């Protein structure tokens, strides 16, 4: 109860600071991103936008107090199952229920530091996507990927993460670190 009350107080403080059109009901994408950046050290714009969309359950472009508390509950204290579902939703860029090779490529390209080199950085990212898919392919797929079409369903993703927890944030950091 005290944690929920603290989250509500924090929400009210953030809304009070906000000078946007949603101030009466919550806060917008920019305020949310500022909070993710300043409180949790998130840097990746694309992932912060995806986290916003995952929190914004009713898709009204505003985080309400209920969405805030429910979202942070999973974000900060979620069970492994809840965190798997959350990360999958963040990574499923088009919301079709699969993480495709192209979505993996976009997230990895976005989250990897740009290193100056003579090599084409896109080639290295494609190689990394292949490695991730091969690692995921070692898991016996229960649904979609029998045909090796380069897409991961939630079930595929969950099985892979349960076998290797490091894969939970395989396509970029979208959860807070232990601090």
TrEMBL record:
The keyword DNA repair does not apply. PROSITE patterns: EF_HAND_1, EF_HAND_2. Keywords: Calcium, Metal-binding, Repeat. Residues 43-78, 79-114 form the EF-hand domain. GO terms for molecular function: calcium ion binding. The keyword Calcium applies. This is EF-hand calcium-binding domain-containing protein 1. It comes from Podiceps cristatus (Great crested grebe).
């Amino acid at each position: 109860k005290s944690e929920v009350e603290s989250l509500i107080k924090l929400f009210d403080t953030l809304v009070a600071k906000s000078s946007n059109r949603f101030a009466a009901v919550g806060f917008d994408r920019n305020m949310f991103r500022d909070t993710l950046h300043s409180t949790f050290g998130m840097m990746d714009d694309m992932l912060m936008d995806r986290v916003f969309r995952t929190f914004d359950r009713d898709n009204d472009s505003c985080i309400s107090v209920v969405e805030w508390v429910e979202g942070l509950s999973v974000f900060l204290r979620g069970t492994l199952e809840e965190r798997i579902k959350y990360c999958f939703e963040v990574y499923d860029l088009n919301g079709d229920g699969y993480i495709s090779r192209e979505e993996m490529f976009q997230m990895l390209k976005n989250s990897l530091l740009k290193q100056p080199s003579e090599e084409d950085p896109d080639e290295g990212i494609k190689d990394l996507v292949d490695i991730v898919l091969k690692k995921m392919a070692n898991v016996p797929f229960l649904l979609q990927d029998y045909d090796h079409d380069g897409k991961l369903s939630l079930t595929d993703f969950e099985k892979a993460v349960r076998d290797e927890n490091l894969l939970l944030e395989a396509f970029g950091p979208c959860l807070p670190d232990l601090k």
